């Protein structure tokens, strides 16, 4: 393989029901930094049906080029069909790097494409940089239970691929005056490319605000002692703040709240404006998912709890007394 032939850092832009996922913008921002370092371009690959109008949004967030695969057959995500489209893109355009969001779809699609193209993929990265000597991407991710950060490279094959968790990088500001190229691509799919059939979409999580997209998260840990405070006290505080309820793994493992709400290394990475940690000790695996929050407020009865080392505001006290008072005070303040 002549590595010099492969050019461009490409973000697989993920959209759902006609709306681009935030992670696509976050990856464009970081992709642009990587591309600038290696003297390359950053682009996006947009797949779906009636998605072409979204291309301009990608350009506003940093894409120099957007390759669009717009076809009725691509209306719903399909593992094998979307993989085929990306393999076709690779064979035609010869990209150097593919950045994929570590979402449900990205985690399904990325490895499938990497396997088809006989290249490597680093999953669930929390950092991206460039190796000074070889100008290859250095993919950083936690390893050995989060105790070390591993740096992984893909020196001999292309594309260099990785999935990156939502909320690891900040979304760049949109520049409405930015210009770029939008390129219509030919979709070449047959029935044989669809190994599964879309039947029905069943949305989980009750349709509330998702923690990965929430501006405010009120999270509860083992000290909440049951499911009732999640449904009552924590939900009420989250609601007055216009946010969502999160949880530590201890609370999820105890069956008090669904795993969709888990924050941390094996849960979601979140980046809200405010993160309220209630009766959560602050284990490293929990911190791995929430230290990107702008402001962390911790409520814990143990003044030595590790969460107090990472918080901006700490309240030493019993959550069952502090949270209702906080909710009351915010309600009063809002009138
Ligand atoms: P604890 O550590 O038991 O802390 C409970 C806290 O509540 C204590 O600090 C206590 O002082 C306080 N408290 C109790 N009662 C009250 C009260 N009335 N008022 C105020 N404070 C009170 N964990 C995650 O969260 N997310 C992950 O994704 C995750 N992934 C993991 C992956 C691996 C491979 C491993 C090994 C572990 C993982 N964990 C994860 C588990 C993690 O190590 C901790 O066990 C977990 O985060 C602890 O949850 P906790 O803080 O709720 O419970």
From TrEMBL:
Protein keywords: Electron transport, FAD, Flavoprotein, Transport
Q: Does the keyword Transport apply?
A: yes
What positions does the domain Electron transfer flavoprotein alpha/beta-subunit N-terminal occupy? 9-198
From what organism does this protein derive? Megasphaera cerevisiae DSM 20462
Family assignment from sequence similarity: Belongs to the ETF alpha-subunit/FixB family.
Q: Which residues bind FAD?
A: 222, 248-249, 262-266, 300
**Name used for this protein in its record:** Electron transfer flavoprotein subunit alpha
Top-level taxon: Bacteria
Keyword Transmembrane helix (UniProt): no
Q: What are the required cofactors?
A: FAD
Pfam families per UniProt: ETF, ETF_alpha
């Amino acid at each position: 393989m002549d590595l010099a032939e492969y050019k461009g850092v490409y973000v697989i832009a993920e959209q759902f029901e006609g709306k681009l996922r935030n992670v696509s913008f976050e990856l464009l921002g970081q992709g642009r930094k990587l591309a600038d370092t290696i003297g390359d371009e950053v682009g996006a690959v947009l797949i779906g049906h009636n998605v072409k109008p979204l291309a301009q949004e990608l350009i506003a967030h940093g894409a120099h080029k957007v390759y669009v695969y717009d076809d009725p057959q691509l209306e719903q995500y399909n593992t094998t069909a979307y993989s085929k489209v990306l393999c076709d893109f690779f064979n035609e355009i010869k990209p150097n790097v593919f950045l994929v969001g570590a979402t449900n779809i990205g985690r399904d699609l990325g490895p499938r494409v990497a396997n088809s193209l006989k290249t490597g993929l680093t999953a669930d990265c929390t950092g991206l940089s460039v190796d000074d000597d070889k100008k290859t991407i250095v993919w950083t991710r936690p390893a050995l239970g989060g105790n070390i950060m591993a740096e992984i490279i893909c020196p001999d094959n292309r594309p260099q691929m990785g999935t990156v968790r939502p909320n690891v990088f900040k979304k760049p500001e949109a520049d409405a005056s930015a210009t770029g190229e939008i390129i219509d691509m030919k979709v070449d799919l047959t029935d044989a490319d669809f190994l599964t059939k879309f039947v029905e979409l069943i949305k989980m999580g009750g349709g509330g605000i998702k923690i990965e997209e929430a501006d405010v998260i009120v999270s509860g840990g083992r000290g909440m002692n049951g499911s009732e405070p999640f449904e009552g006290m924590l939900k009420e505080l989250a609601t007055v703040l216009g946010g969502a309820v999160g949880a530590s793994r201890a609370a999820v493992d105890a069956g008090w709240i669904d795993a969709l709400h888990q924050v941390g290394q094996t849960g979601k990475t979140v980046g809200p404006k405010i993160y309220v940690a209630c009766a959560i000790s602050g284990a490293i695996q929990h911190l791995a998912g929430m230290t990107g929050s702008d402001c962390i407020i911790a409520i814990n009865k143990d003044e030595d709890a590790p969460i107090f080392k990472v918080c901006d505001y700490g309240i030493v006290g019993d959550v069952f007394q502090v949270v209702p008072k906080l909710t009351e005070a915010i309600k009063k303040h809002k009138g």
